[in-house]
Amino acid sequence: MSTLNFAIIGTGGITLQNHVPGLALCPDVRVHALCDPNPTTLESARQQTHASVVTSRWEEIVSCDDIHAVIIATPNYLHPTIAIAAARSGKHVLCEKPLALNAEDARTMAAEAEKAGVRHMTAFTYQFVPAMRYLKHMIDQGDLGRPYHYRSCRLQDWGTRNLGWRQQKALAGTGELGDMLSHRINFATHLVGPMRRLVANVKNLTPIRHGAPNDTDDWVAILAEFNNDASGVLESSKLASGRNESWKSLDYVEINGSEASFEFTTGKWNELQYGRLGGPGMAPLAVPESFWVWPGSKRDPRVGDPLIAFRYDQAVEFVNAIREKRPCAIDFHHGAQAQAIMDAAVHSAQTGQWITL
User: Fold this and answer.
1) Is there a common fold for 4-125+311-330 and 126-300+339-356?
2) Which residues in the chain show pLDDT less than 70?
3) Strands 69-72 and 53-55: what pairing?
């Protein structure tokens, strides 16, 4: 096909910030249809994309013959139903994380997409940060040595404002665990490998958010062991007062190995901290320009805010995988793997026990 027609289901902030600008980088790609139950949100997206079709019913989109690919950015509980219907209709699917409310549904999504022969991708956006890509490269070429420890810390100041559907367990599944720690869980398995077992805890410190009930977690921590005997410590909070939000807040990963240590923060997109065994300490390590842009992306890394623009490469990878008829770099199987770890974390917090994966 010369032109790929995309439909976007769910036209809120993440769509306008990440998905629409990313698709605009891709030649011969058109946002053809939009779907959202909120008329104001839908109209705002229509004005930005000039989409030909707008609707409040996703069922009208996934069955259209002139739609080739679908991006799902809805509340989490809708992901499996829409993704499976789209795959069965022959549509390639990019779905926001967390992929589902439980690992069984996430695995079903992956199986249905594989059966339908469509490309499928989980939106673990931070794998596209240049510093993250270079860190993975350094680990893969042996600079870390044997992995000893992985730790990540994500601290934001969200206060007690209303989070809409994200503070309803029935719609979101979990709070901070699925919203933010899912990315860091993906970091951990991407950089270190599969987890063997974990123990976790969650807390809800704001049962009322701006006058509305909240039954999801504000804070979560996981202590993990990996299959290769490395240890892991992961923490994430919405209530780190004074820490600000998004890329202005703390998003930190450190890996210690037998030969070296590496530190990565999303706020330093083109720099790592690096220290060798027995050396004087950690020092800056510049990310080579060859890692500044995802392979195949036509994005100019010197244009726009680099702490936002790397997210656009996610759409580029999805489109290129469709055109090249190959698996996406981050597919539904990766989303299901992260979901299984999140399920185990919830189970551990409920029982107070270590959970084997």
Assistant:
1) no
2) 1
3) unpaired
| Contact yes or no for 222/345 (Cβ under 8 A) | yes
Residue 13 half-sphere exposure, CB side, CA atoms within 13 Å? 3
Containing 313, the helix (H) or strand (E) segment is helix 313-324
**pLDDT tens, residue by residue, 286-297:** 999 999 999 999
- How would you list the strands of the sheet with 250-257, edge to edge? 283-286, 271-276, 260-265, 250-257, 147-155, 231-237, 219-226, 195-203, 355-356
Write down the domain spans for the chain: 4-125+311-330, 126-300+339-356
Mean per-residue pLDDT over the chain, rounded: 97
Give the CATH class of 126-300+339-356.
Answer: alpha beta
- Whole-angstrom distance, CA of residue 157 vs CA of residue 248: 10
Q: If you search the block for the tokens 């799902």, which residue do you land on?
A: 72
Q: What is the DSSP string of 40-55?
A: HHHHHHHHHH--SEEE
Q: Which residues contact 40 (CB under 8 A, 6 or more apart)?
A: none
> Is residue 274 a contact partner of residue 261, using CB atoms and an 8 Å limit?
yes
Cβ-Cβ contacts under 8 Å for 355 (sequence gap 6 or more): 197, 198, 199, 200, 344, 345, 347, 348
Looking at residue 288, the DSSP 8-state letter turns out to be P
The Cα–Cα gap between 9 and 37 comes to 10
Is it true that domain 4-125+311-330 has CATH number 3.90.1150.10? Answer: no
210, 161 Cβ separation under 8 angstroms: yes
